[in-house]
Write a structure and sequence with these properties.
It is built from two helices and four strands. It is an alpha+beta fold and 95 residues long. A four-stranded antiparallel sheet has the order 1-2-4-3. Strand 1 and strand 2 form a beta hairpin.
Length: 95
């Protein structure tokens, strides 16, 4: 999969009622709807041409979701092909 040049990645952190919300948004190619439902599956890769030697283990989002869940939070991913992807972490705010 070729690298897209000229895109952006934005990080945003805000408070929302009793939560802290962290968003990482990119302007990449996006994730196909059929692939989006698998992004938290361990060892899954959207690009079948990728392997351990060419990048990634297919564990990052699965591990991140477990860590966030251990802190009573949630991790979600939304994406639109041709527009980009947003990963959202929501954690309870400290009193």
């Amino acid at each position: 999969m070729p690298v897209d040049r000229g895109g952006t990645v934005k990080l945003r952190a805000v408070t929302d009622q009793d939560s802290v919300v962290i968003e990482v948004a990119d302007t990449g190619r996006g994730i196909e709807p059929d692939d989006l439902k698998h992004v938290f599956d361990r060892f899954w890769r959207a690009d079948n041409a990728r392997s351990r030697s060419t990048g990634g283990r297919g564990l990052g989002l699965a591990i991140a979701r477990e860590i966030v869940g251990a802190h009573d939070g949630s991790l979600t991913v939304t994406s639109e092909v041709g527009v980009g992807t947003v990963c959202t972490i929501r954690l309870p705010a400290l009193d």
